[in-house]
Amino acid sequence: MKISFNPCDHFMEVTVAGRLDATWAEPFLDALRNILRDGQHHIRMDAAALEYLSSAGIRSLLQIHRELTAVDGSFKVQRAVPFVSEALRMSGFGQLLDTEETATGDHGRPLPDAASAQVDIQEGMAIETLLLSPTAKLALRRVGGWQPWQPVAAGCCQEMAFPGSRFALGIGAPGSETDGLRQRLGEFVAAAGCVAYLPGDGFEAPDYLLGAQQFVPKLGLLDALICDGEFSHLLRFGPQQPGACLPLSRLTACAMDQLQTDTMGFLMIAEIDGLVGAALSRSPGLIEADTEAGRFPDIRDWLTFSGERAHSTEQALVVGVACRQPDHPVAQWLPPVPSQAGLHCHAHAAVFPFSPLPQGKIDPQQWVRKLFESGGPKAIMHLLEDDRPALGLGQSAFVRGACWCAALDDKEVTEA
User: Fold this and answer.
1) How far apart are CA 187 and CA 170, in angstroms?
2) What is the per-residue burial (b if ≥16 Cβ within 10 Å, else e) of 111-122?
3) pLDDT at 252
4) Per residue in 57-80, is it b (16+ CB within 10 Å) or e — as a string?
5) Do 24 and 122 reside in the same domain of the chain?
6) Residue-by-residue DSSP string for 371-407
């Protein structure tokens, strides 16, 4: 079997020649999934040279049709020879055929809101800015304020609920101190009524809570940044050149430029080029007064660092707060970014299997929940920049995705 690709205005034409059977069904599906991963959500398959189609081949066509439909895309088979068209119709899947009535019709549609979007090209990446609610701002609250590597006093963890309108990151765990909360503290990410957390009990597998009906996830918080409010902007980004990606610092700088602010909160779903960071391997609640957890070599018992750029080609849910005004109160709560003078950013990422996003404006509540409903997080990391000379891994970077953001309301920045 031979597969070739011909990009058209608003769709990708895929020409298939030979036999689409059990031998070729998976390679065919992998090839089309690569097109989908690259952001092309409308595919037309030219089947004029397709000689044979088996049930395994039909299954692969249906699979790519379902995956494209899930992201508001489309898939049609055009110019099928009689054997192929009859096989599809007799199997009950004639809807995949692009008939004469539709052959000159919708071959894909332009990107939603493309006419009103502002697009910026930076170092091989296209960054599209879409307005959501231009005057919206976020309230930021810092809870806990634990000083790293200090013992955790009894009663210092504050309980907080995470409804759908709130997003947050920090260190916490579900439960109360009476049932061992301080022994389970670890990094967490919360958004859209979902919470992913890494129990600091020696196990590396993250767990999660999913809000449903009357249930609202709650955590006991040792240290957290919590944002409430609406997003004002959505940034969609993707590569214009092979191998291009967007470092986290450049993404935050671009977002703040668009927001015309020096402080912001953001929520992102994006395909990973590579993550750099760390995670607690033991709960800070286990630190004793004479423990030197923050010193080398003891720190290796408490923190796990990424030894390489991790989780390439998977999907990240990233929650963060950024500030590029060093004397702003928020900057004191955020670690500095070594490669960007004046920039401070605190971000956590939960890692999920890759799944494509629709183009244009999309609802963060819907797509965050889809990530969790697909099977839960695979890892959670506190994102860091590794600036060691020669050996440093640099910073986390992303291939394509969606970043919702808004400026912080200085009148609503509080610490509890």
Assistant:
1) 6
2) beeeeebeeeee
3) 96
4) bbebbebbbebbeebebbbbbbbb
5) no
6) HHHTT--SEEEEE--B--TTT--B--EEEEEEEEEEE
CATH code of the domain in which 227 resides: 3.30.1330.80
Residues 240 and 286 in one domain: yes
Please enumerate in sequence order all residues whose Cβ is within 8 A of that of 298, keeping only pairs 6 or more positions apart, or say none. Answer: 291, 292
Give dist(CA 23, CA 16) in Å, integer: 14
Kindly report, residue by residue over 253-291, the tens digit of the pLDDT. 999 999 999 999 999 999 999 999 999 999 999 998 888
* Position 373 in a domain: yes
Domains identified in the chain, total number: 2
SS3 289: coil
More confident residue, 107 or 402: 402
Residues 75, 45 contacting (CB under 8 angstroms):
yes
Domain range spanning residue 359?
A: 118-139+222-415
pTM of this prediction exceeds 0.70: yes
Q: Which residue is associated with the tokens 């990606």?
A: 245
Return the ∠ at Cα 264 (arms to 258 and 269), rounded to 5°: 80
Mean of the pLDDT values across residues 167-173?
Answer: 97
Tell me the pLDDT tens digit for each residue of 292-316.
Answer: 888 888 888 899 999 899 999 999 9
